[in-house]
């Protein structure tokens, strides 16, 4: 009982050490669990929301639309739980200018169901539900009416709508009709699109570099009032996928099994079948058109023949009358009246030549008959010409039918292709990677500080330990006094850390996240396993340090422990050997130098602890500086052009004419821009289809005209880069990189994520879905976006040659056409504001699909989530620095109580004692800061290597101000600690402190 009382008394006396260990554990556990818990809560709530709304696992799109046969084939794929055929249509309306929207049919099979936020779901034709973004931008509300106009080529099935022939036929249209929606609309509800969780009322719009929306808004309409038997897409749910977390690799593997099956025989067979359907429909229309034309021509010929017969009868009647009159006259001149009677009774018989001559004479003599004959002859001639023209047109259509209908292509996509999903996942993954790295530093500092504190605590009780051991107490029982002390401090600190880690930090992160994304049903959850392991990790570390301190003391005999520890043997320090310096240092300066360098453990612990805390602060500020400069570096340094304009292929010429006529462009470069994919080629022979692939990245494929390859360097800064260590990269000389016909230039942001370097083989997919293996000639410095530059010649070699992948989908050499330059990179005159306004005005032009101002992108680029996490980490690092300095200062004072008492006896005033002690701590702090500043830069580089986000490369940047802030903050904490330590020095009693320990 006395042993326990003494132990409790000892614990109460060491309350400062207890608080220090508890606080360090609290901060460490909070960092370890807090960021993880915040991301996990966001992941889980989003996954629950996706499951509740039936967000599709797989989406299938087709260049020719999807038919009922396609839907039936998808239902038969093994592993598919549900298939929902969807219809949509792009429309335009006036809202402070021309705006576009996608009319989306609300599925009836429970897939991709919008989440109702206000009002009710639409049920009748003409009713729609809109997103909150539309309500905010338009100022409309529930009950407001809206009139929209369908776009002429808005449907995904526009590839099947060919031009009409001269005969009025449409040779390529199938029997299926494209979707059509009502145009007189009434808003009845406000919904959240599960495919896009961006918060329109927050600041998510600033991350526009990841926006993938092709229209401004989405309107949701019921099936009532929607016509058309052709489907825009098909969405699928995979069996077993809902049981997995959508953000885990197990989910991706489950879905990939189904997508691989679809990409196999189903995709190929249905592409061929769909194209054959279009060919058959075209042929049928040509046959029907020929039959209809023949019927019309036969009717016209019959009419002409009837009119000609009537005309001939009329002429023959006149001929007969004239012939009869002539015969009667001849008879009148005869001798007898009987002849007259006989002549009058019969019509004279004329031969054919005479009759034809009389016809021509009669017609020529009558203007009416002449005009009637000309009209008949002209009608016959026109009819013959129409017959010949129509037959020639139909034969031409028959010959051109196969070439006029393009190859049908399917695009099988999973959730990763959803812009909103991939943006949320990449944001959370990046934050989680930071949460996995920072606790390591906290743990190391906690172990160091615990070792320092507990070693001093054991050393102070040296004689007491000897007494207990001498009385027969086991060494384990004696050591338990300190082990239980450290364990209790860890458990209390860890418990408070769990509260902060599972409540405080997640609540802060989720507030920031909800400013970027809408996540219904978000709630905080406790993870017993992770929380317990978090505390256990620090308990093991601190107890290991305590055990080491106890073993170091208790391995001695009780007699040795009962005697005071012998003072450290005197020794010279290196500075003493430098006589010119040492001789000029004052007495107190020499004492300070000896105290600092003779006690190696104190030096290492103090400098290491301060350096670690300073490094954390620098690392946090480095990430903040890196993110803050991304937009400026990319859009003002790397991109030298001011404007990028993109149009449809059919509007490319009109777009260039429009931009040229405005007179704002000082120089420009026509290019072709396509959205594609870059996949790391497999090992071995470079075949990208082998099992060596290690990742894929969405890219922007930029083809440059052969005659203007040298002009690319004037629009984009071309600098070769090579990967370095610790997040660094070697950047070559500006202008030393040239685009040629031997390979492609890959952006650093994509190359870093996939491990691509110069000389690598990659698989490229162009905008038409055609794949080919390409050589990487160089990696270009690029921070935002994943651009891949290719020359016109190399593009044709990749995607038009027989060596290209998927040759069944690639163009043959005789059918290949010159590239359409559908985009323009331009330098503009005027201020940044005028350039931004000009880009916005261009988007209102019908020939322009997208216009991007680099000035606007540079000013608007933000990464608020990362900034919030960096602020949290810097705050926690500052708290850790304060605790570390407090622990070291108190340990330093407790070790030197007799020394301080001696100084007081020698006549030192309190202020002089303060200066004597604090000067050592300040020097050690400065040494720790000097070591921590470059260490923070290195740690920041390592962390950026872990932040492999889609379309982003973090080029580490640490501004001088950040170094100053980190140094000043650490020194400020050291000064603050002095305010707590000075009263402790004042309370030292010289008499009691100098009493013999024996």
Mean of residue pLDDT values: 80
Which shape, going by the Cα principal axes?
elongated
Uncertain stretches: 153-174, 203-213, 339-345, 682-694, 801-816
Please give the oligomerization state of what you see. single chain
How large a portion of the residues is in β-strands, by DSSP E?
Answer: 5-15%
What's the number of helices?
27
Largest sheet: 8 strands, mixed
* N→C terminal distance: 26 Å
* CA-based gyration radius: 44 Å
* Total number of strands: 23
- Based on helices, strands and strand pairing, what is the structural class? alpha+beta
Helix content: 40-55%
Structure overview:
Residues 369-400 form a coiled coil. Residues 144-181, 678-697 are annotated as: Disordered. The structure is a single chain. The chain has 998 residues and is of the alpha+beta class. It has 27 helices and 23 strands. The strands form four sheets. Strands 3, 4, 5, 6, 7, 8, 9 and 10 form an eight-stranded mixed beta sheet that branches. The protein is elongated and about 185 Å long.
